[in-house]
Amino acid sequence: MIEINLLLIFIIIAAIVAVEVKDLLSSVVAVGVAGFGLVISFLTLKAPDLAITQLVVEILCLIILIRATIKVDLPFSTSGRWLINTLVSIAFIAVFLSYGYKALLSLPVFGSPLMKTSDFYLSETLKSVHATNIVSAINLNFRAYDTLGEATVLFAAAIGVMSIMRRKGRLTNKNKDNESE
Fold first, then answer.
1. Which pLDDT score, from 0 to 100, does residue 110 have?
2. Which partner for 30 in 17, 61, 124, 136 could form a disulfide, CB atoms 3.0-4.6 Å apart?
3. Which residues, other chains included, contact 66 with Cβ-Cβ below 8 Å and sequence gap of 6+?
4. Could you please report the per-residue DSSP string of 108-171?
5. Does position 166 have pLDDT exceeding 80, yes or no?
6. CA dihedral 105, 107, 111, 113 (to 10 degrees)
7. How far apart are CA 37 and CA 12, in angstroms?
8. CB atoms < 10 A from the CB of 73, how many?
9. Where does the pLDDT of residue 70 fall: very low under 50, low under 70, confident under 90, or very high at 90 and above?
10. Would the pLDDT of 176 be above 70?
11. What is the rounded CA–CA span in Å between residue 33 and residue 14?
12. CB within 8 A of 177, min separation 6: which ones?
């Protein structure tokens, strides 16, 4: 339980930094750090499906926000702090890879269920659903609403990114009149 408390303190500090920092791009990065803290919280609470959904949405939101703020605020490209930026990037990559390595080491042996729910799904799916593909049977029968919700979130995030990242803008009424003539 102490891990969750530490993660919540981390998320709160990142949110305060996002609100208080003067630099717009740094604020966006701090919001992203708070979101990634939430992803780690979901993993700690053994909710990997929520963690994956939050991770995808967080990455897409960061892409959108950085794209929106990069033209307004360019502190890294104009400040000449390339050495500090490079060292921070290398440190971030090293921490990310070390946590990824630890996460891979902590995975159970392939095929061994972790919880009672997993045992139930594996033993009862074939009997009650009569489907040979257990993963599809679980997603479509036992967890259909959850899967629908996750698919809706991912679809909405993808549509949002596509609408912001498009190159061609909307035509104004004046442009429409010129094209029709």
1. 72
2. 17
3. 25, 28
4. PPTT---SHHHHHHHHHHHHHH--S-HHHHIIIIISHHHHHHHHHHHHHHHHHHHHHH-SS-PP
5. no
6. 150
7. 10
8. 15
9. confident
10. no
11. 6
12. none
Tokens 């990114």, residue located: 161
Give the DSSP letter of residue 48: H
Give the alpha-carbon dihedral of 156, 158, 162, 163, to 10 degrees. Answer: 10
Residue 37 to residue 32: CA distance in whole angstroms: 9
pLDDT of residue 178: 57
Q: Using alpha carbons, select from 64, 78, 17 the residue that is nearest to residue 161.
A: 64
Whole-number mean pLDDT of the chain?
Answer: 78
From residue 5, alpha-carbon distances to 10, 41, 60, 106, 109 in Å are: 9, 9, 27, 22, 29
Q: What is the pLDDT of residues 76-112, one digit of tens each?
A: 455 566 777 788 888 988 988 888 888 778 777 776 7
Residue 66: how many other CB atoms lie within 10 Å: 13
Tens of pLDDT, residues 7-16: 889 999 999 9
Q: Is the pTM of this model over 0.70?
A: no
